[in-house]
Design brief:
- By secondary structure, this protein is an alpha+beta fold.
- It has three domains: 54 residues, no CATH class; 168 residues, no CATH class; 81 residues, no CATH class.
- It is built from eight helices and 17 strands.
- It binds zinc ion.
- The site of zinc ion (ZN) has 7 residues, from loops.
């Protein structure tokens, strides 16, 4: 027991107690003595053969005593009827400590007791020893736990009425894994952790619960902020990628054009404006100015022959014959003849 009353009815923490002084049990009002010098740190004890009406076993480890020492006397070991709650934060959140497993029935009984006497209940389990033994392996989102305690296995039945938090000290730094709201996401050896917090964050977390604030809110806000940042970055990246792709395409087309012109292979043809009179005033061909490249191999012999002839007529300035043949070309191939490399004089 961490606290008792002196003969002035003051609540005294074991840290301030003096061996040999008069202390009474806050629950049964029987006399207590300060037990010190053993393997355990000093604690209040009932005299032998004097049983307390509080038959519960509480965590009396150095770990839980250290936690209790960090709260004020008014928050530690608060009696309701024949038992006590280890810590009560702002009269709104009860916290019970445990370094070991317990019967499922005990777990339920104590949890029910907390919820009957205070609005919110939390269990803090110290798993550091199991971690040191290698029984549990903390991961980013979960802990792998060989031979998991049955009480955790049945955790789902609590229906989120209680926060379950595990503490693991790694190289002297305590980490707090919040398990709440994960009642269904477990199997026989994995406990999913909502988030890992360091001690100052964890203290803020349970103070928020005690203050009736959503303890998840700061993390939700941060997650939303991160999500938006990521979205913006993705959008920026997409725009950059499209710009880059467009520049690449233009460069590629330019190179292709240069290559084709250099090799003199394709024939550059330009779709000419459709003669409006002959086409009965139809709309101009929208593609009139589109450049068309036709590699030589695509020109059939007849096409080549006609092209040669057109070149020749053009060279000889026989315009009447040229324009007749050019018209035939146009009607046959659907675009106007303008230029061919075949008949360049060389
Ligand atoms: Zn007692």
């Amino acid at each position: 027991m961490f606290s008792a009353y002196d003969n002035q009815n003051n609540k005294i923490s074991i840290n301030d107690a003096v061996a040999g002084e008069f202390y009474i049990c806050p629950t049964c009002k029987k006399r207590l003595y300060v037990k010190a010098g053993g393997r355990k740190k000093p604690h209040f004890c009932h005299y032998r053969n004097e049983s307390c009406i509080d038959y519960w076993k509480y965590d009396e480890s150095d770990w839980s005593n250290k936690w209790k020492s960090s709260f004020s006397n008014e928050e530690v070991e608060i009696i309701h009827h024949e038992h006590h709650i280890d810590i009560e934060v702002k009269n709104n959140l009860g916290i019970m400590f445990s370094s070991s497993s317990m019967h499922w029935e005990t777990f339920i009984e104590k949890t029910d007791y907390m919820l009957r006497n205070i609005n919110n209940a939390m269990w803090l389990f110290n798993l550091t020893d199991l971690y040191k033994k290698g029984t549990i392996e903390p991961k980013r989102n979960c802990i792998i736990w060989r031979g998991i305690w049955k009480m955790f296995y049945d955790y789902q039945y609590l229906e989120n009425a209680v926060w379950i938090v595990i503490e693991i000290a790694v190289k002297g730094v305590s980490w707090f894994g919040i398990l709440k709201d994960l009642d269904r996401s477990y199997n026989d050896k994995t406990l999913y952790v909502l988030r890992w917090l360091k001690e100052d964050q964890f203290r803020r977390y349970f103070n928020d619960i005690a203050d009736k604030k959503d303890p998840e809110l700061p993390y939700k806000v941060e997650e939303e902020r991160q999500r938006k940042l990521k979205e913006e970055a993705n959008e920026k990246e997409r725009i950059e990628r499209e710009k880059h792709e467009a520049a690449e395409r233009i460069e590629r087309e330019k190179l292709e054009r240069q290559q084709e012109e250099k090799e003199g292979q394709p024939v550059l043809l330009r779709k000419q404006k459709v003669d409006e009179e002959k086409k009965g005033g139809q709309q101009e061909n929208k593609k009139q100015n589109e450049r068309v490249y036709i590699p030589e191999r695509l020109l059939d012999p007849e096409m080549k022959q006609m092209s040669d002839r057109l070149n020749e007529l053009n060279r000889l300035n026989r315009f009447s014959e040229f324009s007749d043949l050019a018209m035939i070309w146009y009607e046959k191939y659907g675009f106007a003849w303008t230029y061919s490399p075949y008949n360049h004089e060389n």
